Amino acid sequence: MPRDLSGNIHRSAPVSLMVDQRPVQAFAGETLATALLAHGISAFNHTASGQPRGPYCNMGTCFECQVQIATAANTEFRWVQACMTTVREGMIINTGSALLKHPQMPGQAGSHSDETHN
Q: What pTM, to 2 d.p., does this model score?
């Protein structure tokens, strides 16, 4: 039977993210992978044939957890490993089905790159 540890956990300040054009709350210091999984999001991207991909190793080795991120200050989307990237206030994340289209910032033309590192 799982042991409830909630009484001993102290979370840091909440931060606001946009995930697939939906507002999501995470906590400073968490990785993107942690925040997405906590919100029930397990398909972080898709293969060329449409198969969902998600975290596998959670230590930056496999690249299965890649998502695209942008910020208000840097509106160009770039690929990052969700398990190696810490959440920041105002991040905009495209995952799952959003990656099957060309990502765009709300109200802007937007662009994306094919970087595979932070």
A: 0.74
